[in-house]
Amino acid sequence: MNLNGWIQIALYCAVVLALVKPLGSYMTRVFTGERTLLSPVLGPVERGLYRVSGIDARQEQHWLAYTGAVILFHVLGFAVLYAILRLQAVLPLNPADQTAVAPDLAFNTSTSFITNTNWQSYGGETTLSYLSQMLGLTHQNFLSAATGIAVAVALIRGFARASSGTIGSFWVDVTRATLYVLLPICVPYTLFLVWQGMPQTLGAYVHATTLEGAHQTLALGPVASQVAIKMLGTNGGGFFNANAAHPFENPTALSNFVQMVSIFVIGAALTNVFGRMVGDERQGWAILGAMGILFLAGVLVTYWAEAHGSSVLNSFGLTGGNMEGKETRFGIAASALFAVITTAASCGAVNAMHDSFTALGGLIPLLNMQLGEIIIGGVGAGLYGMLIFVIVAIFVAGLMVGRTPEYLGKKIEAKEVKMAMLGILCLPLMMLGFTALATVVPAGLAGPANAGPHGFSEILYAYTSAAANNGSAFGGLTANTLFYNSTLAIGMLVGRFFVKIPVLAIAGSLAAKKTVPASAGTFPTHGGLFVGLLVGVILIIGGLTFFPSLALGPVVEHLAGAAGQTFATGG
Amino acid sequence: MLKQLRPALVLLTALTAITGLAYPLAMTGLAGAIFPAKAAGSLIERDGTVIGSSLIGQAFTGAGYFHGRPSATTAPDPADASKTVPAPYNAANSSGSNLGPTSAALSERVKTDVDALKAENPSAPVPVDLVTTSGSGLDPDISPEAAYFQVSRVAKARNIPEDKLRDLVTARIEGRTLGILGEPRVNVLALNLAVDDLARR
């Protein structure tokens, strides 16, 4: 660890924090239907879209209709994406002559993109045509992100409204999130990325003759336009197999920094949107504060572990930290920081190979995802994930003092707590259940590339990443098989919808309630005590659920490595 | 649900056309007009042929060139398409080694590389980036220490004084962006092109 590394980390936090208020203010205007700076340009487009779709922008939906719209949108999106992947061989814009994507892989990839997971069973440059990347993946990058934002906004309305039968219109929310938030940022962002060296071309792969006379095929494509939304929408699915470690997908230290900022910026700003819409910005800052504490703790551990180096490298007297799987231009600090950010948010892009991280350096990304990606989190998903924990924390506080719990003037009753627990419990069921299955059936055991505890970590990481809709991987796992493609896809679907639907149910239930005025007995939810309680509840629930599995993987590996042990794959 | 079918279908189609076609195509046109060389992949040409991209590393093996970091990229086995063979710096199939911190295979690979480098230059500590594979397998850079480490070998093979080569390396070190971001580095392809120029003069 060095001073410069800490300065990079501090600068990162400062830039994200500085953007919270301006973007939060803008997004609040967008989702409350007020005029914005971009209304003169985008207003006509928006109204045109509503007209052709037969949408009345003023007509709001009951939570059940909202949920129905969300599901319908996903189902249709899945069908379109699956069709494009299966038909890419006969569709245009396929200069590298990619063949049709296999059915199980197309199922996995389509599921992965509609759920904002972007797990990479596919290989990017070796599997997908330019059309599949653009029309297939780029558009789902936008829409799955816009859906996440829409659901978060619907939940916020649940808290903000009183005695209301509706929580907004999904069609309006998803259109506005796409047109007013995502697209206007992506346009200049794409140009910035190209300026940094990222390709943006429809030209075919280039054949080069190297200085030593060897042949090198350079995979290219419309990379920058996809990377912009991949990061901003916390999607994370790479254009190339190596994702943001690839020099074409992350050319410079500056492009790396801006990509990291763009992963967090919308999620962080949504806490401010929350504060503004419930009428007390401090409520948003309290939630951001809890996120910040967990985030900085993760950065500290990962940076320390990676800078300290792995036992294998240290045994040869090598200094300079664990550089296996990391790029020279980023170094240890920016790689460790990126890993914590991408798993705190549900991004899943990687600028270094997590599989080659030290045992403890890899534990933090795993734990971040297991907690449900509530530290900033996926766009929208992070905020509603965190609000689920808030409900549980408030409930626990209520139990302690023997009073009906209230949050923002809403009584938290049995229905909300049940729904919150459903959302929390479906994740460990998928993560741990499928890991247990994969460690006993031959099809599962065929996956890991590494032996010993690290092989177990590879499996655990895969199901954790899928259910948490993250998409990053311990990439050594051979996941492009029928067994993994299907079980991971199930994990993604459950992880997405068994959180989203309970969240919308909570939104509907809260919106219908009356607001009770605060009294002397009301637990204040904008101060340090509440932040501490929230962090405590998250760590207790996460720790109790996942510590045994972490002990079997990273913790054992750390101890074995410290004792000088290595593991060889048999056969 | 049926009442929602029309908005769902039409909106999905319209937003798909905007975000999946109009946006990437417009960006391709705009990027090609403003940054044509970068949008096309920062290609480097010498004597009319493309020799690579300034952003993508190449496999250098000769003693007269500076070497990049080890690369874990692979290519399909020509004899059996279901298997892969090592193909360092395969820019059509980026990947890392994905070897974990307690992997015996990693330990053996690093040992072989460390021993070879120690034999080549016993006077300096082995830089860690010269014995570890990058995340992409296409890392175009090495650390300044890794470049200095190889000066004596390249100087001997090329018959260039070591001082001159060392100055060449020093001149090609790129610092941290704004003095803060990333790490100091040397682009191996650019350095080797400069070495070729120096040797030609």
From TrEMBL, chain A:
For whether the record's keyword set contains Nucleotide-binding, the answer is no
Cellular compartment(s) = Cell membrane
Subcellular location, principal? membrane
Q: Where is the signal peptide?
A: none
> Which parts pass through the membrane?
6-24, 63-85, 137-156, 177-195, 257-274, 286-305, 330-350, 357-376, 382-401, 422-445, 482-507, 528-547
In the bilayer, the protein is annotated as:
Multi-pass membrane protein
Q: Does the keyword Cell membrane apply?
A: yes
Matching entries from InterPro entries are given as: KdpA
Quaternary structure and partners = The system is composed of three essential subunits: KdpA, KdpB and KdpC.
Spell out the family assignment given in the record's similarity comment.
Belongs to the KdpA family.
| Known function | Part of the high-affinity ATP-driven potassium transport (or Kdp) system, which catalyzes the hydrolysis of ATP coupled with the electrogenic transport of potassium into the cytoplasm. This subunit binds the extracellular potassium ions and delivers the ions to the membrane domain of KdpB through an intramembrane tunnel.
Q: This protein is called what?
A: Potassium-transporting ATPase potassium-binding subunit
> What species is this protein from?
Methylobacterium fujisawaense
Question: By which gene is this protein encoded?
Answer: kdpA
Automatic annotation (TrEMBL), chain B:
Where is this protein chiefly located?
membrane
Disordered as annotated region, ranges: 71-105
Q: Name one Pfam family in it.
A: KdpC
- In which residue ranges is the amino acid composition biased (Polar residues)? 91-105
Q: How does it sit in the membrane?
A: Single-pass membrane protein
Keywords assigned by UniProt, alphabetized: ATP-binding, Cell membrane, Ion transport, Membrane, Nucleotide-binding, Potassium, Potassium transport, Transmembrane, Transmembrane helix, Transport
The record, for InterPro entries, names: KdpC
Compositional bias segments (type: Low complexity)? 71-82
> Where does it live in the cell?
Cell membrane
Could you give the subunit structure recorded for this chain?
The system is composed of three essential subunits: KdpA, KdpB and KdpC.
Q: Which family does it belong to?
A: Belongs to the KdpC family.
What NCBIfam families does the entry give? kdpC (TIGR00681), PRK00315.1 (NF001454), PRK13999.1 (NF010603)
**Physiological role:** Part of the high-affinity ATP-driven potassium transport (or Kdp) system, which catalyzes the hydrolysis of ATP coupled with the electrogenic transport of potassium into the cytoplasm. This subunit acts as a catalytic chaperone that increases the ATP-binding affinity of the ATP-hydrolyzing subunit KdpB by the formation of a transient KdpB/KdpC/ATP ternary complex.
The protein depicted here goes by the name: Potassium-transporting ATPase KdpC subunit
Which species is listed as the source?
Methylobacterium fujisawaense
